[in-house]
Amino acid sequence: MSYPFLKGHGTENDFVVLPDADGTVHGDLSAERVRALCDRRSGIGGDGVLRAVREGDGWFMDYRNADGSVSEMCGNGIRVFARYLHEREGEAFPMRITTRAGVKVLDRAGDELTADMGRPEVLGETEVSVMGRTWPALHVSMGNPHAVAYVDNLAEAGPLLEPPEHDDAVFPEGVNVEFVVRRGERHVAMRVHERGSGETRSCGTGACAVAVATALADDAPRGTSYRVDVPGGTLHVVWTEDDRVLMTGPAVLVAEGVTDL
């Protein structure tokens, strides 16, 4: 069976987009198909799959990690998803998109897109470990779980070939782990290991979690904008007075075609 696909990325966090308006093309979307699509040698390659399914008058973003597992939300992915809906399905901005973490609203910000990522949940202190070294971390939920750890140098996290160790009682379904250094006032840089995908070039919800954790550490007033550098580029994040997290960054469609993977 052949079916259409698109390829896109947000700060080099890349995704395969699958148009499937009525849900009949991919059915339940098997983990095997997701893994085949995301394979960087024998497939199209990507950190995950974004399936576009009609839901009522709007769209549902069915997001899967590269290993085929289901995920609640993807911050870079939802900007790519919105770019696809605008350029290929004719959807106008501002745009409401349903996810497993609720409805998200996206709008233009010049050439970039801003996503209202909703209200963060700060759930307390925890720890993460890599290669026998342990750091304190802040547990932040952006609809999906994050552990934000500050380090002196991003290289301290090592190659991140395996998931950092974490408390399974706190994160029974795994966790996205961000390692963060300060670059200047209201300016941080991060690396991330995403559950189900490994280390990626960027993580949008992770950048939001990092901005929230850093704003708390700085006792910064709401509305302060943080620059978050990731290996694939830069995101800007604001935690607003009304307890919303707004993330702004690029979203680019780079290819489309037909595959039988």
UniProtKB/TrEMBL annotation:
Record's InterPro entries? Answer: DAP_epimerase_AS (IPR018510), DAP_epimerase_DapF (IPR001653)
> One Pfam family for this entry, by name?
DAP_epimerase
Its UniProt pathway annotation is: Amino-acid biosynthesis; L-lysine biosynthesis via DAP pathway; DL-2,6-diaminopimelate from LL-2,6-diaminopimelate: step 1/1
* Key words, A-Z: Amino-acid biosynthesis, Cytoplasm, Isomerase, Lysine biosynthesis
Q: Where in the cell is it found?
A: Cytoplasm
Q: Where is the active site?
A: 74, 203
Q: What is its main location?
A: cytoplasm
Positions of the record's site feature: Could be important to modulate the pK values of the two catalytic cysteine residues: 146, 194
> What EC number(s) is this enzyme filed under?
5.1.1.7
Q: Which SUPFAM superfamilies match?
A: Diaminopimelate epimerase-like (SSF54506)
Source taxon at top rank? Bacteria
| Reaction(s) the record says it catalyses | (2S,6S)-2,6-diaminopimelate = meso-2,6-diaminopimelate
Q: Name one GO molecular function term.
A: diaminopimelate epimerase activity
Detail which positions bind substrate: 13, 65, 75-76, 144, 176, 194-195, 204-205
Identify the enzyme class: isomerase
The job of this chain, per UniProt, is described as: Catalyzes the stereoinversion of LL-2,6-diaminopimelate (L,L-DAP) to meso-diaminopimelate (meso-DAP), a precursor of L-lysine and an essential component of the bacterial peptidoglycan.
Xref: HAMAP family: DAP_epimerase
PANTHER family in alphabetical order: DIAMINOPIMELATE EPIMERASE, DIAMINOPIMELATE EPIMERASE, CHLOROPLASTIC
The family line of this record is: Belongs to the diaminopimelate epimerase family.
Subunit-level organization: Homodimer.
Q: What is this protein called?
A: Diaminopimelate epimerase
